[in-house]
Amino acid sequence: MSRKMYEPTDNQKCKWARFDSTTMPTDEEFKARAKREHKPWGILKRNFVLSQMTRTTEYQMGLWQGRVDRARALDYSEERNENTYNLGYYRGYTNYESDRRGWDRNMRQRFDEKYII
């Protein structure tokens, strides 16, 4: 089966355009927060970085492209040097079946008509 590229909907484009990035707190700020929350500061920093990565257009494009490739039974491939895109692609590809179960019937039908059939 040939590869089809994901095309975001107008609603997704509007939503993704509103993503904003916040400045990364210093290690001292992470350490102070970790002390208050009784958690390792490295874990808090990792979670912050991951949450910022998921709030990017590149991540979302990778996520949906991974879902499309998995639905079309294509092999997994990381073709970009962007870590955010690759993280999204990995999650979209590996979690496709689980994500699909969370979609309503209309969403599954629209996705199938556009990318599978």
What does this entry look like structurally?
- The longest helix is centred in the middle third of the chain and has 15 residues, at 57-71.
- The protein contains 7 helices and no strands.
- The chain folds into 2 domains: 25-55, no CATH class; 57-117, no CATH class.
- The N and C termini lie close together (11 Å).
- It is 67% helix and 0% strand.
- The protein is mainly alpha-helical.
- Helix 2 (27-37) crosses helix 3 and helix 4 packs parallel to helix 5.
- The chain has helices at 10-17, 27-37, 41-54, 57-71, 83-94, 96-101, 105-116.
Main β-sheet: number of strands, strand sense, barrel status? none
How large is the radius of gyration? Answer: 17 Å
Which structural category do the helix and sheet elements fall into? mainly alpha
Low-confidence runs of at least 5 consecutive residues: none
The share of residues in extended strands comes to: under 5%
What general form does the structure show? elongated
Percent range for helical residues? 55-70%
> How many β strands by DSSP?
0
Q: What's the helix-strand series? A: HHHHHHH
pLDDT average, as an integer? 93
How many domains, as an integer? 2
Number of helices, counting only DSSP H or I runs of 4 residues or more: 7
Terminal-residue CA separation:
11 Å
